[in-house]
Amino acid sequence: MDPQTIIAKRIAEELKDGMLVNLGIGIPTQVANFVPAGMRVYFQSENGLIGTGPVPEAGMAAPFLTDAGGRPVTALPGASTFDSAMSFGLIRGGHVDVTVLGGLEVDQCGRLANWMIPGKMIPGMGGAMDLVTGAKRVIVAMQHTAKNRPKIVRECSLPLTSERSIDLLVTELAVIAFPDRRATLVELSPGVSLAQVLAGTQAELVIPDYLQAASCNA
Amino acid sequence: MRTIPLQEAVEMIPSGASIMVGGFMGIGTPELIVDELVRQGKGDLTIIANDTASPGVGIGKLVRAGLVRRFIVSHIGLNPETQKMMMDGTIIVDLVPQGTLAERIRAGGCGLGGVLTPTGVGTLAEVGKSKIEVDGKTFLLETALRADFALLHAFISDYVGNLSYALTARNFNPLMAMAATTVIVHADNIVPVGVIAPDHVMTPGPLVDYVVAKG
To answer: Residue A28 is part of which domain span?
Structure first.
């Protein structure tokens, strides 16, 4: 399995029936592919849609029905549309249960940087700052390292998206939570050792006993 | 509301004007009005919009034609031409969180001086803004936005300018319809009064100054 698929499948396990969920672009978009059959999750697209469905078949795209990247989508039965003030009222007002976002860096107290690299890439924050500020639960989908450089760092070198600590970080190697704003390893991906995770992480990680033991036996 | 030929509608807009343009990645942008702005070469514009679409699409046409002095937008990531012109200093881009942009426009249209939002506290978005504590929580004071013109796209307009939008093409259009001195709409369909039921009107006709005539 490629890293993106490992991450997307693991995040899908966090979703529950009836949740209102916003997925960012990139790896987060793939999470929708792994929602178990029979579970009803409402996906919000911040351009003004609840009930986002899969990409339409060729030749069937509606010109006025797109995702936040401007690509054609479908709307599922029960879908609703609204303007941008309502869309961000849902986001900022705490009505969105889970948001899944991509990341450039996460620091050891769980703060995310994901909207610009000064001097290099300035896409703008779009909806990211509102989503991290307002969603009930923030999950970041991110590869553990970039070109062997740690992305989970002591302190972000890139501009922050929010002061708020994210709730869960899922990489292809591990799952990290942030209780009391402290990066805490909660799971190793199958076949991954604690040493591997530590080697790719700059942030100080709290390691619970059960993972220490697992690593000794491996 | 009165109907107006496309060319005359755009002739009303002077170079240097501030303009709100509806749309999200070009969806819900009045493409015909943008084309006419380019044809007439109205320059030095301040554009308030969600994004700059992609190269050569929607607002991306204004970027490519070099007609914009300043953008107030939330995202330029899907238009490398805007990013390049921002970095080499050809245009000024004020990046605003998307929800904050929506509320600043809504405030401008609703007679408010601004809004208090938690979004952006502790980030670059707070630079130069007042912070206000309410019930122990910190908010940024984000001021209202208004513009000289709003250029909007609707799916349906009736003869008095009642508007209805389609699916995700609604986005910023109804907010901007309230926040500009002169509101110009291009509608895909113009229909008799009554075809849009009162409960289904999304922007009431009295907010609309001009609907661009067909043909």
So the answer is: 3-217
